[in-house]
Amino acid sequence: MSIVPSLSARFASRLRFTPSPCAAVAVALVAAVLAGPARAQTEQAFQLCAGGGGTALDLQIKACTALILSGDLNPTNLAVAFDNRGVAYATDHQYDRAIADYDQATTLNPDDATAFDNRGLAYAAERQYDRAIASYDQAIKLSPKNAVFLDNRGLACAGKGQYDRAIADYDAALKLAPDADVFYDRGNAYADKHQYDRAIADYDAALKLDPLSAAALNNRGLAEAGKGQYDRAIADYDRVIELVPKSAFAFNNRGLAYAEKGHDDRAIADYNHAIKLDANYAAAFYNRGLAKQRNGDTAGGTADIAKARHLDPAIGKSVEGGG
Predict the structure, then answer these.
(1) pTM to 2 decimals?
(2) Sign (positive/negative) of CA torsion 206, 207, 211, 217?
(3) Residue range 192-232, pLDDT digits in tens
(4) Which of 53, 107, 163, 180 is exposed most, by the fewest CB atoms within 10 A?
(5) 38-60: b or e for each residue (b if 16 or more CB lie within 10 Å)?
């Protein structure tokens, strides 16, 4: 049997859908043309449609839909309603509906950079990275000094494995505004290029701005492990577990670091905890199986690896030649 690497888990970059910045303006415009109860109802509908403040998604969608169907809105306000309903759909992971609404918003108001950015986020969520990048291009053309738009395009480029393009966007975003999320994203891109020193430097910068970022701590641990600095990695995973005690990722990753140090008993204890937290965590079963086999528990290891492959049939196949 060939040597099979264990499987680590990295916290992924996040999506940030943004309600239209035109919402408050839209309410003001409505107030100018409506009066009495109709005005009050429409203002309330716009406030609900804008979301935020704990507004339930179904209420946000209903409010936006009522505005869209009312026939009372001018094109600018109608675009706001479509954009904000798209945000609600996207937050609810209904990306096709979100994209359809963003299409309407950008058609009605082709100067709304936020709607182009949000459409890019929805395409990226569906891994349609070329379409996402095209939407981000439009957003950046309209608002070239928006660091968030540059960061989001960088994430889409990274999703395509185009890490140098991604880093260029992150560089541009950081020149505009130092931001923990962007340092984190650039660190991920450097880590994907196996440039671990640069990745660690970016995670350090992210943590300086946001010391409680479990994602940056976890991913810095992975970069340190990539350099063979397992004690440093374990220290970072310890901190993640303090911050997020139910992070199966962190227990799995700390187990990997212990295994690399030859401490398979500690590794198995961490994999046990990861599996307790997530009974369908294929990588933890797989890693525990390898550790058990190294510890002489062939039957237990084989059972764990079989369980991992039941959960994820592709696990380990790229290394073991499909066996």
Answers:
(1) 0.85
(2) positive
(3) 999 999 999 999 999 999 999 999 999 999 999 999 999 99
(4) 53
(5) eeeebbebbbbbbbeeeeeeeeb
Q: What residues in the chain have per-residue pLDDT under 50?
A: 1-6, 12-15, 23-37, 318-323
Side chain identity at residue 130, one-letter code: D
Contact, 63 vs 48, CB < 8 A? yes
User: What are φ and ψ of residue 223, in 5° steps?
Assistant: -65, -40
Cβ neighbours for 54, distance < 8 A, ≥ 6 positions apart: none
Query: What value does the CA radius of gyration of the chain take, rounded to a whole number of Å?
Result: 24
Contact assessment for residue 240 and residue 247, using Cβ atoms and an 8 Å cutoff: yes
User: pLDDT tens digits for 257-288?
Assistant: 999 999 999 999 999 999 999 999 999 999 99
Q: CA of 244: how far to CAs of 47, 159, 212, 241, in Å?
A: 34, 26, 10, 5
User: Which residues fall within 8 angstroms of residue 281, CB to CB, at 6 or more apart?
Assistant: 248, 252, 274, 275, 311
